[in-house]
Design brief:
With about 700 residues, the protein is α+β, with helices and mostly antiparallel strands. Helices cover about 35% and strands about 25% of the residues.
Length: about 700
């Protein structure tokens, strides 16, 4: 029997594929990249067409020996790394190491890890796509030049340990620019007036003041509001017009990488990194009880909305079987991306088998895997269901020269909304109401006038979800780079997260200002988007990669030389209200090797320093009445304990409250779920305690960097 070797990136993927291919195939994981640019040197020959100097990654020598031995014993070697630029580059590097001719048909790709997809790919191998490899190589060289050349400048002019990067620097700038908008924003006063009106003895409606003499009315201060209120108190209210219309709402398209990260952030409170980690596990395969190791979703790094005909057909059958013919469209719902640079080789993110419902496989998944799979599954099935339909009613009420408006919305048929409703970053007040039967010229009785002072709001700070959305809109980065970019700017402390909001740090502001003044193109949104377009041109074979790098480096080298003469920038320390016990100065927040700490600004005269303590406001220790502090374990996990530790033993993993359990009188803790929280007893023996699901051991995956 002939022997075939298949090389993939991760052990989980290897297990799944080996199961599908059976006897005659050996599947081994490369554990990500085997070769890369050196860690401590530039690794790019600037004099010889930017030739990269690749070397074997530390710790991979034994694995390479194994791969070479297996390849020599095999009749055929198939390179089955991920179906994108990074995956193509990994295959190219493996081919170089194993002396496989790059023109040989050894490359296999599949969008989903199912038996049919894998076996068909093995039957139809192709040569390595050098244009795809060159696009990845260009990005790698470009980012290495920027990072390696620019980072030392930041160390010299700002502080040691900083890094710069094409995409991360632009993402930081976007957050900084928004903060600047917020700082400069001047709120304007406006007033809203509503009337609670009685239509008959039991039915009421709420109408909002909209117009005066047919023109839009803006109430700018309390004086104007009071004048209008005085008039409306004695006015007669008559229904002037009633307009009814039928409204339809189309299903949302299936997920692509950016929309999955956004929706998982809004609905599940997942970071982009957490979303992609769990999606990777679902894609590579999970042990499902009674079914074995199965890849549950299609490839999760995609910007295509395409769905295969086979998947649409199965989904339609599921909808007919489960919900009935009234929920299935006559044909299929098709979705098109509005962007011109979509990589349509992949499908959208969908379940590999729609008949594997979240409920059916819940016991085989970790809680996070289940939540994400459920989100993907429901969004996909809903995308192939019929529209939701509503009746809308708009009622205009006349009160002298003033016009008030009431709107009503009534669902006729739920359609796709039976299964899925998309969330939003901006949850606006919903003024739709169930309206009673009304007729034109009906007189209404005033029950109550409601007036409210408001002020215009500045633009909201970015969340991970909205930052990914704006990066996608601008064309900055690609599906593979959104999550690692956000992780990087948080880890480098250019940006901080408070709740879901992203704030630029003083370090982020100072670094961005230096970049804007000296390397304006690198932090320019249009320039960075244009560079992404050039990488796409390399991938399509239209532009040589060296030409793109040479054009960029010509500008960059001049800017770098000029920036050497700028003055050193001082970062302003964040001042706190805490006073130094030794000299009375207000202490400041500094960053050291192990994170942030409080220090006296009088250094070196006063060397007082201490850790930052976060007190849980309005909560007292249930054992001794002391303050409750938020702390972190050695592994970085948050917990809560008494300030008098170790003399007081109070400690809990859940945020404590002053509430007491009605069963055992122990402290009640908060457990957050999405947008809200529930109270649970912190006594694990109590029946009111939080019942954690049995812990499942996730299969180890490749430690390759998230692409």
């Amino acid at each position: 029997m002939s022997k075939n070797l298949v090389i993939v990136e991760s052990p989980a993927k290897a297990r799944t594929i080996e199961k599908y291919l059976g006897a005659g195939f050996s599947v081994i994981a490369s554990m990500g990249h085997l070769r890369d640019l050196p860690e401590r040197t530039l690794g790019v020959d600037l004099e010889k067409n930017f030739e990269p100097k690749y070397q074997i990654i530390s710790g991979k020598s034994e694995l390479i020996k194994k791969l070479k031995k297996e390849a020599e014993l095999s009749d055929k070697v198939y390179l089955a790394t991920d179906p994108d630029r990074e995956g193509e580059a990994i295959s190219w590097h493996i081919a170089k190491i194993l002396d496989i001719d790059e023109d040989k048909k050894c490359r296999v790709t599949f969008n989903e890890i199912t038996k049919n997809a894998v076996t068909e790919a093995i039957k139809n191998p192709r040569a390595i796509d050098i244009d795809l490899v060159d696009a990845q190589q260009a990005r790698r060289v470009l980012d290495r030049i920027v990072g390696y050349k620019l980072s030392p400048l930041l160390w010299k002019k700002i502080r040691k340990g900083l890094s710069a990067g094409r995409v991360q620097s632009v993402a930081t700038r976007i957050v900084c620019d928004r903060e600047e908008e917020i700082d400069k924003f001047i709120p304007e006063e406006y007033w809203v007036i509503k009337a609670n009106l009685e239509a008959n003895e039991k039915d009421t409606i709420v109408a909002r003041l909209e117009k005066k003499n047919g023109k839009k009315l803006e109430i700018k201060n309390e004086t104007e509001a009071n004048e209008i209120l005085d008039y409306l108190k004695t006015s007669e209210y008559v229904i002037d017009s009633i307009k009814e219309a039928k409204k339809t709402r189309r299903p949302y398209p299936p997920f692509i990488t950016s929309t999955l990260q956004q929706e998982a952030s809004r609905k599940l409170n997942f970071s982009a990194k957490k979303t992609m980690l769990n999606a990777q596990n679902l894609y590579e395969g999970i042990d499902i009880k009674g079914k074995g190791h199965i890849g549950l979703i299609t490839y999760m790094r995609t910007d295509s909305l395409r769905i295969s005909d086979e998947a649409k057909g199965l989904c339609k059958k599921y909808i007919l079987d489960t919900y009935g013919p009234q929920y299935a469209p006559k044909g299929y719902n098709e979705y098109k991306s509005g962007k011109g640079n979509v990589q349509d080789a992949h499908e959208a993110i969908r379940p590999s088998n729609v008949y594997l419902t979240p409920k059916d496989i819940k016991d085989s998944l970790t809680p996070d895997q289940y939540k994400l799979y459920k989100l993907i599954w429901e969004r996909f099935v809903a995308s192939q269901m019929v529209n939701a339909t509503f009746n809308t009613t708009t009622v205009e009420v006349a009160a002298g020269p003033y016009t008030l408006k009431a709107t009503g919305l009534k669902m006729i048929f739920d359609g796709f909304m039976k299964l899925y409703i998309e969330s939003s970053d901006n949850e606006e007040e919903d003024e739709n109401q169930i309206l009673p039967v009304l007729h034109e010229k009906d007189k209404l009785k005033l029950l109550k006038l409601i007036d409210k002072q408001n002020f215009t709001s500045p633009p909201p700070r970015y969340t991970e979800a909205s930052l990914i959305k704006i990066m996608e809109e601008y064309g900055i980065g690609r599906p593979s780079t959104y999550a690692p970019t956000i992780s990087t700017i948080l880890q480098r402390e250019y940006v901080e997260k408070n709740g879901k909001s992203l704030f630029p740090t003083e370090l982020g502001k100072v670094t961005t200002l230096l970049m804007k003044e000296n390397f304006k193109d690198i932090v320019d949104v249009k320039f960075t988007a244009g560079m992404e377009g050039q990488l796409d041109n390399i991938e399509s074979g239209d532009t040589p990669w060296v030409e793109v790098i040479a054009s960029f480096y010509k500008y960059f080298e001049k800017a770098l030389a000029k920036a050497q003469d700028i003055d050193k920038v001082k970062i302003k320390d964040e001042e706190t209200d805490e006073l130094c016990e030794k000299c009375g100065r207000k202490m400041v927040i500094k960053t050291g090797k192990y994170g942030k700490f409080l220090a006296c600004p009088g250094f070196p005269e006063c060397k007082n320093a201490k850790p930052i303590v976060n007190e849980v406001k309005s909560v007292s220790c249930p054992l001794c009445g002391g303050k409750v502090l938020e702390k972190k374990s050695k592994k970085g996990k948050k917990f809560y304990g008494c300030e008098k530790n170790p003399t007081c033993s109070f400690m809990t993993w859940d945020e404590p409250t002053n509430e007491r359990c009605d069963k055992c009188q122990s402290v009640m803790g908060k457990k957050y779920f999405g947008r809200g929280f529930k109270l649970y007893c912190t006594n694990s023996e109590c029946e009111n305690a939080y019942k954690r699901a049995p812990k499942k051991t996730a299969k180890k995956t490749s430690k390759k960097e998230e692409k």
